Every structure is written in structure tokens, then in C-alpha cells.
Amino acid sequence: MINKPVSLFVFFSTFLCIIIAVPTKGCWSGGWTINVINEINNPDRVQVHCKSKDDDIGMKEIGFHQSVDWKFCENIIAPSTLFFCHVYKGKQEQVFDVFNHTIKPLCREQDRSKDYWRCSWLIQADGIYFIDRRDGGEKIIKMHDWKNIGRVI
Question: Superkingdom, according to UniProt (predicted)?
């Protein structure tokens, strides 16, 4: 019979190996995908800069029906992952969280052909919208109005 200190050591060593291996092998829970889609039917492009504390997606210029997309693994030690975007449209802007502990439950639509969950955001002429797919359909919810910045980006 294995004594208790040895079995605890084996348990915690195994757990530590799993935590270290997860980022190199994929996400613990399948991961997340964020889509920020320009739905403004206008020849002018919008600028989108998305980032987290550790990852900077970079400044992107996107035209009508184009998007900024990325995948990530959520922090498993303390689920505190936060991504936000700063969007510029002419003399207007908006900064908003695209993923945090409050938004996460709204992103429970899973594409069964892929191993991740998805949060989708729409940039429209009158503001920023979220696509709620939790009930199987698509419900578009306005989340943010544009703010005037007084300068053109």
C-alpha cells in the first residue's frame, strides 16, 4: 500500500503536468473564438484594435462584411480572461469588452463540428451588437452606442 504523502505527491505532480501541458496541446475546455464583424454598408473601413492583458490582436482595418477573428484558451487557474476592442468609425469610437466572466455565459453557442465556443459582435452604423445564439436561433442585441471623438482616425 502506498503511504499518504507519496500518493499526494503523485496526485499533485500529475495535476501540475496537466496544467503545463494544456497550453501546448490545446485548450482545457475546447477554447473560444471571437468574431468582430463590420456590417456597415459603406466604402469607408472601420478600424478595430482588440487585445487582452497578454495578447494584442493588433489594429485592423476592415471593410463591409469583413471581420477580425481569433481563438484563445481561457485562463484555467482563475477564469479571469478579458478581451476588449477599441473600434473607430470616422469621428466615432467605442471601447467594449468582447469576452469576460459576464459575457462568457452569453457565448454558449457551440459549433458541433468544431471544438470551441463562439462570441460574435456586429459593428453597425448605429452601434455595437452581440449575436445571442443560446436558444438555437440568432437574436441580435444592441450593447453599445457610438461615442463622438471629434477627430477622424
Answer: Eukaryota
Which tens digits make up the pLDDT trace of 41-67?
A: 999 999 999 999 989 999 999 999 999
41, HSE (Cβ side, Cα atoms, 13 Å) = 0
Write the CA distances from 25 to 28, 73, 85, 112, 122, integer angstroms.
Answer: 9, 11, 27, 20, 31
User: How much is the pTM?
Assistant: 0.77
Residue type, 33: T
What is the rounded CA–CA span in Å between residue 116 and residue 12? 28
Specify the DSSP element, H or E, that contains 81.
none
DSSP 135: T
The count of C-alpha atoms lying within 13 angstroms of the C-alpha of 58, restricted to the half-sphere facing its C-beta, is: 6
Q: Which helix (H) or strand (E) holds 21?
A: helix 4-25
**Lowest mean pLDDT: which of 22-26, 42-46, 86-90?**
22-26
Whole-number Cα distances in Å, 49 to 27, 55, 86: 24, 11, 5
